[in-house]
Structure prediction request, 189 residues.
Amino acid sequence: METVHVFAMAGSLRKRSYNRALLCAASEMLPDDMTMDIFDLAPLPLFNVDLEAQGVPESVQDFHERMDAADALLIATPEYNWSVPGVLKNAIDWASRPMVDGRPSPLDSAPLAIIGGAGRLGGVRAQDHLRQIVLHNDMRVLNKPHYMLPSIWNHFDDDLNLVDEDARVRLAQVLIALRDWTRQLQHFA
Prediction:
């Protein structure tokens, strides 16, 4: 089987972001037939059609190209005020646009797995809202297994290593399910 390449992003700009650490943990436990590119959302400017009309910024072009090179997406989102963080929504707004060369958005019909953690409910509202947002580009969201970490900070050590064994096992299951889901969708494309 061919390797499944995953484009990943965390909806947090914090240096010690637990959701970014979740992606780092995922990148270390990928099956042999998967690769991952973790993108830092910090360089993306705020979406503005006027800015786009002046010429798509280089950071956005890089974002599009790296996403377009992937077979699937993985988004780790915290929950801010019962929704996704603004930085993640901004990234999705840029990604939903056609590419510089006129090709469709790299989000269109792409396989997607959503993971994350937050406070008491683990980010369930943010993940639900994210599922609504990505409908615009007809993304193919992996429905199961769900992956939410309540009190996410309790699952990591001081060096941001995911030390909770159950959380690690469940994360590995999401990666395998995303790989299989991506291949299934490629088969029917």
Remarks:
- Residues 165-188 form the longest helix (24 residues).
- Helices lie at 18-28, 49-54, 58-68, 86-95, 124-133, 165-188.
- The chain has a mean pLDDT of 96.
